[in-house]
Amino acid sequence: MIRRFAVVAVLAAYLLLGLSQVLSQDQLTLTVSEPEFSRRASPFGFEEWVAQGILINEGDTAAVDINLSGEVRDADGEAIGFAFGVLVDACGLGAPPDRPLEPGDSSRYLLTIELDDEEFVPAALDIDVTATSIPAAPVNPFLTYADITTVYQGDVARVEWTRRGELRFATGCESDLYTTWQWYTVDTETGEASAIDLPYPDVYTPEILDRLALETPQEIRNARIAFHPDSRRFVFQDRINTALTAEPDGTFQRLLWDALSRYSLAGYLWLPEERYLAYYFGAFGDPVIYYTGSIAGQKISVAPPEVIPSLIVPGSTPDGGRVVIAREVDGVVGYDLASTTGGAVIRLFEGSAPGNNYPAPVYAPAPDGGVDIFVIRDIDGQARLQCYDLRAETLNSLTVLPLRLAPDESGWSAISPDGRLLALAAEGRHGGLWLIDLTQYAACTR
To answer: For the segment 61-116, what is each residue's pLDDT rounded down to a tens digit?
Structure first.
C-alpha cells in the first residue's frame, strides 16, 4: 500500500537585489510505501525492531531535511510504541540531510522502533513525514541518452564479465556479503536482465570460516571475499588485512601481501587470465594505493605502499604490469600510464580528475593493434565518456552519461572480452546498470 503526504514547508530565504526575501510556499508530495518490519542488531549490540520502505518525491520541488516518525500499532490496532528515522542508502546508512530528493526521485527509508514492552510485535505504523522544500535542480530537456541501453535502475553492488562474454551483476549493498546480493545475467542483445542463482559457492560455513580464521561478523564482513569470474578460487583479507587467495573450501591459501593493517580495502577490478587489481582508500578524496596479482597467488606489482598513489581508482593493463592513474605534478593534474613494478611513468594528457568514487579507466587493446583508454570524467558538472587513443595521442569525447554520484556513492565499469561493449554501473540514489556499444562512435572505433 502507498500513502501520500502533503508536506507544506517554507522555502529558505535568499538574497535578491540586496534584500532578504522569502519565496512563496510550495507543497511537497511525498509518497511512502507500506513499511516492512524486521529485527536487526543495533549499533549497541542488542536486537531491535526496524521498519523499512521506499519514499518517492511526487511533487514539483526538491526536498531536504527529511525526517520520518510515527506511532506503532499491534495487530489489534493498539498503540504499542513510537518510531523515528531518516532516508538511508542500500547499506542502511543515513543520507546527508542536505542532499536533495529531486522530483521523481526515490530513496529507502529506515525507522528505528521503540516499543513500550519488548514482548510487543509491531504490525502497523502510521508514518508522518517532515521536510523542507527547495527549488528543483534545473533539468536539461535536450539531454538524452539514446545511445545507451538502461539495463537496471537501483543499487548495483558488482558488475563483471566472464571470459565467455557473459555479463553478470549483483544488486544490494556493495560492502555486504556476496551471498546476500541478488544476482542477474544480462542478454547483451536486448539489454534484458534475468535473476539467477548465486553463481559462486557459499563459503560462509563454520568449517570454511574456521580455516580462514574469521570469527566475528565484523571480521567476516571485513574479509571482502570475492570470486574472480573466471576462477574457482577467491580473494580475501584476514583479520589484520593480509591479502590472500584460497580454494572454495578455504584450503591452499596463498599470501599476496601483508603489513596492510592500516589500509582500507575498497574493492577489486577483474583482469583477464585470472588476474586482478585490489585498491585501497579510506574516504572520498583520499589517495588510492593498489596492487596487482593473480588469483592463484602470484604477485605482479610491488607492494601497495610502494606504488605511485593515484587520485582515482587505477585502470590496469590486461597483464597487470601498468596502470592508468591520475595525479598532480607541479600543480598540474593529469592522467599517467605508470608501471606497477617500478617507477616508470608517462604523462598521457592533462585535465581534471574525478574523485576516487568514479569508475576506473579501462585500458583496451584495439583490433588494429593500438590501444584505447576509456575514461569517465566530470566535465562541467556532467559525467562524460572519453577515449584516449594511445597511438595517436588524442583525447576524444564520445558521449554524456547518466552517471550521478554523491561523494559517498561509487561507480564501476567493465569492458566485454571482445572490446565492443562497456558496462557502466553505480550504487546510490541514481544507481543502475547501463550498456554502451563502443562500435557506434567514430573515434576509437572498435
So the answer is: 999 999 999 999 999 999 999 999 999 999 989 989 999 999 999 999 999 999 99
| DSSP one-letter string for 258-285 | ---TTS-EEEEEEETTTEEEEEE-SSTT
Residue 306: CB partners within 8 Å, gap ≥ 6? none
Question: Could you tell me which residues are beta bridge partners of residue 411?
Answer: 426
373: its cell numbers: 583508454
Tell me the whole-structure pTM to 2 decimals. 0.89
* Cα R_g (the chain), whole angstroms: 24
CB-based burial label for 372 (10 Å; 0-12, 13-18, 19+): buried
C-alpha span between 209 and 217 (Å, rounded): 11
Q: Residue written as cell 588476474?
A: 275
Task: For 159-179, give one letter per residue: b (16+ CB within 10 A) or e.
Answer: bbbbeeeebbbbbbbbeebbe
Question: Which parts of 249-362 fold into alpha helices (H)?
Answer: none
Query: E-assigned strands of 197-249?
Result: 226-227, 234-237, 243-246
- Which phi and psi (to 5°) does residue 220 adopt? -65, -45
